[in-house]
Design a protein that fits this description.
168 residues, 5 helices, globular, alpha+beta, 27% helix, two-stranded antiparallel sheet
Length: 168
């Protein structure tokens, strides 16, 4: 992901007012490893149901305000729709986002299940130990991570496109 400034991030928000974008808290941008991110995601420490996601889409940063569902399952496992990693259900949350423009102002939203901490970019880089030992089946760590990176980038881009699209 290309690095972004606080001004670029605030200016990229497509589904909130300018005032809301100006008031949103930002993560510590000096700590972000931009080259290891497919998107920038963070939760609002002052409003736990709110999160933010910024992704480069069609050459421009697109910022999205997310709202976490009030309740979530704590039993079993769940899969994040972006990184497609299975985790304990308590670590995956249904997030909704108002669509951009008139559609969002009219109450149209899109939603998807995302890692609760919005840290998919870090999770996909944790490769499992080689499997299939003794059976001649092994995976190449770099290839696996490259596939995960490509898949995450594609899926987060598709989510941004859904937020940007007019309501059906």
């Amino acid at each position: 992901m290309k690095a972004l400034t606080d001004i670029e991030i605030r200016g990229s928000i497509v589904n909130a007012t300018r005032g809301e974008a100006e008031r949103m808290p930002l993560p510590g941008l000096h700590e972000v490893l931009w080259e290891e991110r497919e998107y920038l995601g963070w939760r609002d420490p002052g409003a736990p149901q709110r999160g933010y996601l910024v992704v480069w889409h069609d050459g421009e940063p697109v910022g999205i305000v997310l709202r976490a569902a009030e309740s979530r399952s704590h039993v079993g496992s769940a899969m994040c729709s972006l990184c497609q990693l299975s985790q304990p259900a308590s670590q995956v949350t249904l997030f909704t986002a108002a669509r951009a423009g008139d559609a969002g102002r009219a109450g149209n939203t899109v939603g998807t299940y995302i890692c609760s901490d919005l840290a998919c970019s870090m999770l996909i880089r944790i490769a499992p130990a080689p499997y299939g030992a003794g059976f001649g089946v092994r995976h190449d760590r770099d290839e696996l991570i490259a596939q995960r990176v490509a898949g995450l980038a594609e899926r987060v881009g598709a989510f941004a496109a859904r937020v940007l699209a007019p309501a059906p």
